[in-house]
Amino acid sequence: MALPDWSAIKALKPEPLTKLFQNDKGRVATLGADVAGIHFDWSKTHLTAEAISAFAALAGSMDLAAKRDALFAGEAVNVTEGRAAEHSAERGEGAPESVALASAYRNRMRAVIDAIEAEAFGPVRSILHVGIGGSALGPDLLVDALGRDADRYQVAIVSNVDGVALEEAMDRFDPHTTLLAIASKTFTTTETMLNAESALLWMREGGVEDPYGQVIALTAAPEKALEWGVDETRILPFSESVGGRYSLWSSIGFPAALALGWDAFEELLEGAAEMDRHFRLTPLEKNAPVLAAFADLYYTQARGCETRGVFAYDERLRLLPSYLQQLEMESNGKRVTAEGETVTWPTAPITWGGVGTDAQHAVFQLLHQGTHLVPVEFVGVIEPGDGLAEDHHRQLLLNMFAQGAALMAGKHADDPARAYPGDRPSSTLLLDRLDPRTLGALIAFYEQRTFVNAVLLGINPFDQFGVELGKQMARAADQGGMDFDASTDDLIRRAFG
Ligand code: F6P
Hints:
- The protein contains 19 helices and eleven strands.
- With 497 residues, it is of the alpha/beta class.
- Helix 7 (137-146) packs parallel to helix 11 and helix 12 (262-281) runs parallel beside helix 17.
- The N and C termini lie far apart (53 Å).
- 6-O-phosphono-beta-D-fructofuranose (F6P) binds at residues 132-135, 184-186, 189, 192, 244-245, 330, 464, 467.
């Protein structure tokens, strides 16, 4: 397989951003795109026509178009595990048989949701969803972003094995009117299974006669859920070929579908499908996930950036950075190519971020004057999410725009402590409004961008062997009889005697 040749990218002569604007009056239009209710602006990055054609050549040599087709055709693009990565099929874009299977599973979920709404499970008021990683971050983002005004069910998404997290949720809910949704692709994850057992006990001790009757399983391993005691009719399966961190579109999205309503869930899928079609059919130089990946790779490969910052200027998107951390870092935090050769180039940068304007008063000092060059991504929404005086939203967005302008322009001062170097890049994603359709498109954009990054890096984004060793050692520590290093042994002794 071809390895990426970064020489043309590294040879690009970096012109200051302000000069790029002076030289090209059409820069905002050329480096912009409008897709599915989202305006993308990469004009404040160092991408140029020359850089884009160097990346397009790289994309050609790394077979991006063929790999994109293979992804949507349901081929085994996850080469290390020999399976497909069919999250797009969940939203109707993929191999016909996979789309049909996803749709059958979705109908099954809908039937269960209809039954819950019809009170076939008794008077359900709250959903206690236990899951971790991809089985929590996606649904949590959806419910937090879109569920503010939904007055249907209370939802708690509990991921941490720390009992404090589960206790907090249990304190809020009545066990008699709570559904326990156990979300786990494998149905073996220690944290989730322990939380599920404790939640069942809470129901039993709270006087629920048949706690299992209030359990729904969301999983790609229905046989394990059955073994655990979940009734077959309350198991909502999804395909093995849907990866954990790509699974919010499947039955893992159950709490969102229930809390937001079925129509909202369908709209979310439609928005994502629109982004998929854009990704599949649009030429590279206007293709949003592709251009975003080009900018990502320019900064990691040519400018040595080790992190990227994502700042949501919208309280409703406060969970976006942590969602993206798993998506990007678990997918592309790899050190070998898809064929197992050690890479000699940096792979995924560290994704970090926060919410504006809070982050401005905490971490932006480093962005403006620190020694690290951090490509920043701003995400804002034109339509306000609040009903207060207009000035709240106006100040919010003006701050976002001002930060991007300030990072780029910098400011001279005779006193070096007061000078801003400028020429610091940012991209901006401006959503018309935050509704299910636009959020679906936004998340699909990030998924496809992660995929393009992986293809150009020559790595497999769909496995995550890096998380296994720590899990195995935690199990070994639990079972005892294993000697760790002196420090770890000492810590275990101090904690447990
Ligand atoms: O530990 C990593 C991981 O495998 C993630 O990829 C996944 O989203 C998470 O654990 C949860 O796994 P499961 O859904 O099988 O419980």
